[in-house]
Amino acid sequence: MSETRVLLEHIDVPDLHEIEVYERLGGYGARLKRALTELEPEQLVAELEASGLRGRGGAGFSMGKKASFIPKGSMDKYLCCNADESEPGTFKDRLIMQRNPHLLIEGIITAAYAAGANKAFIFIRGEYVHQANVLERAVAQAYERGYLGEDILGSGFSLSLVVHRGQGAYICGEETGLLDALEGKRGHPRLKPPFPANQGLYQGPTLINNVETLSNVPIIIERGADWYRQFGTETSPGTKIVSVSGNVQRPGNYEISLGIPVREIIYGLAGGPPEGRRVKCFFPGGSSSPVLLEEHLDLPYTFEAMAEAGSMLGSGAIIVVDDSQPIVPLALRLAQFYRHESCGKCSPCREGTGWTVKLLSRIDSGEATPMDIELLASIQENIKGNCLCVLGDSMAMPVSSMIRHFRHEFEEHIERARERSELALATAVGAEELAASDWSGSA
Amino acid sequence: MSPTPLDQGHPGPMSGRPSRLRGWDEPADLSKDPAVIPDPAEIDVPEELRREIEEYMARYPDHHSAALPALGAAQRYHGWCSPLAIQQVAAVMRVTPAYLSSVATFYDMLRTEPTGRRYVYVCTSVSCCLRKAKDVYDAIVEAARALGVEDVDIREFECLGACDMAPMASVDGRYVGPLTKSDAPEIALALKEGRTVLPGRGLEDPDFRLPWQDAEPRRADDGPGAASPTSPDPDAA
Fold first, then answer.
1. ipTM surpassing 0.95, yes or no?
2. Residue contact A184–B13, C-beta within 8 A
3. What is the pLDDT of residues A37-73, one digit of tens each?
4. Helix A41-51 vs helix A101-115: crossing angle, to nearest 10
5. Do residues A195 and A308 share a domain?
6. Is A147 found in the same domain as A28?
7. How far is CA B148 from CA A217, B12, B145, B172, B221, in A?
8. Per the CB 3.0–4.6 Å rule, which of A89, A261, A292, B133 could disulfide with B128?
9. What's domain B118-208's superfamily in CATH?
10. What range defines the domain where residue A352 resides?
11. Mutating which of B106, B119, B168, B213 best tests the A interface, going by the most A Cβ atoms within 10 A?
């Protein structure tokens, strides 16, 4: 099965990160000038809405709608590009930023014009050192050519763009956590409402979009919503870069037309699990999505189909787990991640992730009783929907899906571990008795 | 009572068990006044660090936004976010040391203990873990210990966003992978000698390819329209 390359069309062109190469392939120049001078911001927003482009960061909210929520007026408005790609399994934005930074920058300029924002920020995770360097260089090139700064291409529109490096915190990928981090605080999520569209960065209206979402913007504006809608399905239009990782033969980024079966992505593009192995389960949208099973492999890869199957498309990161992997250590590793990354602001998440790790380690080390599975499941239910942001749910959903699908494995794990410890105890007691009888015998 | 300066900073609240965190059970000295914004006349800030921080402050509408990059700069200069580093940043940014400590203790990449000027983050998150990253981490730690590698902070790290090259590690920001246990001695040796770790196997290296990309080029597999379509194939929709 083939990829459908729209965003990644030119990704293999050497030196694409250089502005000359990008311009030669049709970037900036006339395309940007048309967007900024011939079209009104309302037309851009309408085109984006008509394209049906949905946020590629995880929530899948309509990009055009989000932009239309930004109030009109002369106040300072901001655009933040969320490049804090930290969802385990996701590495698509890294590819765009490293190889095609100008596509992202052009997307930011166009989207900022549509939303009426004059200050833009790219919040990139601190671990992406090389990608941030590439971006900074690209931004400097764009300033030099007059694509950023005052009165861009004679349109009267001005925009400043700053690359802001994070310092390592998963929670900064949450949009309000990102805003706090950008304001120089601990990256704590905020209570919503007010939504960032009304009150975001520095209390101003703020449009926040993912790297992949923004990179789609120049292409949609150039070729039109109808052209874009030829890819994908009615409700999940367009293409999507899928990051496939875990137990597959060819992990990597693959751009697909939304709606192709999951099997084609995992087996056709990524080569399937290693020889002689089967898919035990997979995360369809990053580690925060509930796991799906082999029987779900023939579902179309769309936002709706994944949701109907009880999971989500999320960031489009498919993590494949093959049948050689025991589920308990995997659940434990997953929970440890969320415990580590929980910001601690609200208690269901802070305490819940801690408890989940405690219980899973107990199960893993063989000190648990079958009742602990119930407790584990009930903790997950108490986290869901009770947190300030989705981090708590992001652990509770996959962990409870693992308990649901693989309960027998948890039970077997506990039983086997208990047998082992009973055996060890019996051996110890036996040795003691033997020692005692030896002593009495010799006395 | 042993005083615990507010600006001393202790390890991130999110790492390890509480009992292992230094200073968690030491009482704060309540008789002492809280640290105020340091007097620039009393704090000697190296010129290049001051200039870098001021540059960051000028980038944002609100100078507080410079906290993260400024602490990062101070860490590069001092090796970690030491009490002195925090004092210096506070003096330039005109904020309290406590505010900066609160920020520094939140983020994984800011070191609040002198664990090493250089770093090796070995990703042991879900995708890497499925490909035996824990073994790689253990092997690197063991090899570094055997060689007596110093001033390098080798630690497990959460997903670094490079699951295609799993298991992988970030050596001072340079991503290398896919790794196996047998790479560990070479990594440790390169760290000790201050060389580039695994040249040619870094994500940013010009000729970087994943092993399976060489074995089975994607283009051959995908058909003519897929690799670089001038006009995308409508049949694919």
1. no
2. no
3. 999 999 999 999 999 999 998 889 999 999 999 999 8
4. 120
5. no
6. yes
7. 52, 26, 5, 19, 47
8. B133
9. Glutaredoxin (3.40.30.10)
10. 327-412
11. B106
